[in-house]
Q: What sequence folds into this?
């Protein structure tokens, strides 16, 4: 789960990590009000879950409250890489002396937490990594041991940060590590970490991802799981407890098991179809889950046909058939639905669907071919 | 022969009185798996509906049943890492964790302990494993399997069933079917399973079904190229998955140019592994290779 910059900074502050201070505004008037309270120049930053906000015009300075109002008006409501900006963070400007980069993330290869530091702050770290990888100092932290002092020294001296700030940067790194572990983060990026002309070490930006699997023990963070910016259908699916990913095509896909659904998407694409979603009903799904799944998939108005691909294990094909019939009898479904059953109670499941408009298919490949045919018309093939 | 489990497997079920644990214990016993004990803290002393004695701790269970050589975990995500650690502490040689949704940080803490132990962990977030005709540990619908000489290893459950059922229909049975799990941190990777299949005299050929995310398939390709004498047939799921979207499995995520399907397909092809485009084609490739093997004999 991604959280916003202002939320990430709240997490950091909870762990004693210094950040720039500001407030969230939803209207230009609020931007002006906050600018008046803060006094002086303010920075207005779009709060949306995309990278490269600055380059895309989502971060601007306002020297006076009136100017802040104007930039607030420009940024609020703007489209940033496909997402509408609904709120901004208004912060007092700071006197930047130096900008560093600091990142922590779960490293899948080593199964440890990798910590990266670079003196090239404010830059795109991927670019630094590609062109001058030697400018990034890295250490890997075993969470049963925690971040050690020698590792912090390896980072600070390895990245050739200003030696005058060893103590405050050490304190910052320890705090950030505690925030990372304490909030079950999988990513925490401070870019830039700023040394002000006054000598303070503060996080000027904060990008944080939280492990979805750990939200049960992070109730405060779980509340931040928000809808407004994500896809509305993904939201609805989440509320109904379904694993749904929205895609850009027009063939609806429902299946059981992540690997099988992924493979179904591949099969439909091979036949020339464009899947509109990924939907895994999981193992042992009851009729109600199946009905929910169909409803959610059909919320996308572009959908021209739906493929339901079930390999019965714990999931029973007859149970799935009941769910499909429940949905088709209560909803006015205008698009054709292709159903492929295999495994547990496949015969019973197929029998239940006999005499209906549902189109049976014997294998995944056949089902993929049929759904493309009925969805796009025979002309495509 | 087979890998990891057989007729001699004696199983402890952690979380035996829960809904999943209880249901799948019935299924495993029905298949012929020897379930000798169960664990549910606080319910020690009782017997389950299947007649299996329940203990409070792994230590108690092992004291009463020293023959236990495998454990399976059906414990909810908040407590599953602790259950793995308990099984590791009891030095149970094979631990299978079915639980989906364990926090990554918990698994990062389990991993160093696992590495220092002599135990093997399969999963978490996996369907378990089956040696047809001998034992089933997990939640696989075992009626689709048949005894034979094809080893199957996969990161996904239902995809494994799809592949195995097709092989069975074509008359090719399986030595052992292993679902290694869809999480970013898992105890047993493709390479570990490939090594075991390579050493198993009853396995002639291996089907390996990978998916997007991570680099386990690339590592496997490297191993196959340098160490494997038995033929391997490959498959990669998620070829059309968009970047940055987590496709159901916590581990199935393409980020930047890492973990892409194409990278994995290329690595396997470079290692001499034919990669099927569809699940049906996996069967075709297996039949073709098995016929070649038979001709050599």
A:
């Amino acid at each position: 789960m991604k959280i916003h910059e202002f939320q990430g900074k709240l997490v950091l502050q909870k762990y004693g990590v210094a950040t720039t201070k500001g407030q969230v505004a939803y209207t230009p008037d609020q931007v002006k009000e906050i600018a008046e309270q803060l006094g002086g120049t303010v920075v207005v930053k779009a709060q949306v879950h995309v990278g490269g906000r600055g380059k895309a015009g989502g971060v601007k300075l306002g020297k006076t409250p009136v100017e802040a109002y104007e930039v607030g008006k420009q940024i609020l409501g703007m489209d940033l890489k496909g997402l509408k900006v609904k709120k901004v963070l208004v912060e007092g400007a700071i006197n930047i002396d130096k900008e560093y980069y600091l990142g922590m993330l779960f490293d899948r290869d080593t199964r440890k937490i990798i910590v990266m530091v670079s003196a090239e702050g404010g830059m795109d770290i991927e670019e630094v990594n590609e062109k001058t990888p030697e400018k990034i100092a890295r250490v890997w932290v075993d969470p049963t041991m925690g971040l050690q002092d020698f590792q912090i020294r390896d980072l600070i001296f390895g990245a050739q940060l200003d030696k005058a700030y060893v103590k405050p940067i050490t304190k910052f790194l320890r705090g950030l590590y505690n925030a990372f572990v304490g909030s079950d983060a999988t990513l925490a990026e401070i870019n830039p970490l700023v040394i002000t002309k006054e000598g303070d070490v503060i996080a000027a930006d904060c990008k944080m991802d939280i492990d979805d699997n750990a939200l049960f023990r992070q109730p405060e963070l779980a509340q931040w799981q928000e809808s407004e910016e994500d896809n509305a259908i993904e939201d609805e699916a989440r509320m109904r407890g379904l694993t749904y990913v929205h895609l850009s095509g027009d063939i609806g896909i429902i299946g059981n098991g992540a690997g099988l659904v992924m493979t179904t998407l591949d099969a439909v694409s091979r036949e020339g179809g464009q899947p509109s979603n990924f939907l895994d009903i999981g193992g042992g799904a009851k009729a109600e889950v199946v009905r929910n799944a169909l409803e959610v998939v059909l919320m996308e108005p572009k959908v021209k046909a739906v493929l339901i691909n079930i390999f019965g294990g714990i999931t029973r094909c007859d149970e799935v058939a009941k769910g499909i019939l429940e949905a088709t009898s209560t909803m006015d479904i205008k698009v054709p639905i292709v159903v492929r059953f295999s495994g547990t109670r496949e015969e019973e499941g197929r029998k239940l669907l006999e005499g209906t408009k549902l189109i049976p298919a014997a294998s995944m490949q056949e089902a993929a071919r049929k759904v493309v045919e009925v969805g796009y018309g025979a002309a495509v093939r | 022969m087979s890998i990891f489990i057989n007729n001699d497997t004696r199983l402890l079920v952690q979380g035996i009185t829960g809904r999943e644990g209880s249901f799948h214990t019935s299924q495993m016993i029905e298949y012929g798996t020897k379930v000798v004990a169960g664990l549910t803290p606080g319910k020690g002393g009782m017997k389950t509906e299947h007649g299996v004695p329940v203990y409070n701790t792994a230590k108690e269970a092992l004291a009463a049943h020293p023959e236990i050589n495998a454990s399976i975990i059906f414990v909810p995500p908040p407590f599953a890492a602790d259950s793995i650690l308990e099984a590791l502490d009891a030095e149970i040689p094979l631990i299978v964790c079915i639980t989906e949704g364990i926090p990554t940080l918990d698994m990062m803490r389990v991993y160093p302990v696992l590495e220092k132990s002599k135990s093997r962990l399969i999963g978490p977030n996996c369907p378990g494993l089956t040696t047809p005709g001998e034992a089933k540990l997990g939640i696989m619908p075992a009626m689709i399997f048949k005894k034979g000489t094809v080893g199957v290893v996969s990161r996904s459950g239902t995809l494994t069933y799809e592949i195995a059922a097709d092989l069975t229909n074509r008359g090719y049975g399986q030595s052992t079917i292993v679902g290694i799990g869809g999480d970013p941190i898992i105890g047993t990777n493709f390479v570990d399973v490939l090594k075991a299949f390579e050493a198993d005299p009853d396995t002639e050929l291996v089907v390996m079904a990978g998916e997007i995310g991570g680099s386990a398939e690339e590592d496997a390709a490297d191993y196959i190229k340098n160490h494997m004498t038995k033929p391997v047939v490959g498959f990669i799921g998620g070829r059309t998955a968009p970047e940055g979207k987590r496709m159901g499995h916590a581990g199935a995520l393409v980020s930047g140019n890492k973990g892409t399907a194409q990278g994995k397909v290329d690595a396997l092809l470079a290692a001499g592994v034919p990669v099927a485009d569809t699940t049906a084609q996996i069967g075709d490739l297996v039949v073709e290779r098995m016929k070649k093997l038979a001709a050599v004999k």
User: Anything to note?
Assistant: Chain A touches chain B through 50 residues (CB under 8 Å). The longest strand of chain A covers residues 96-107.
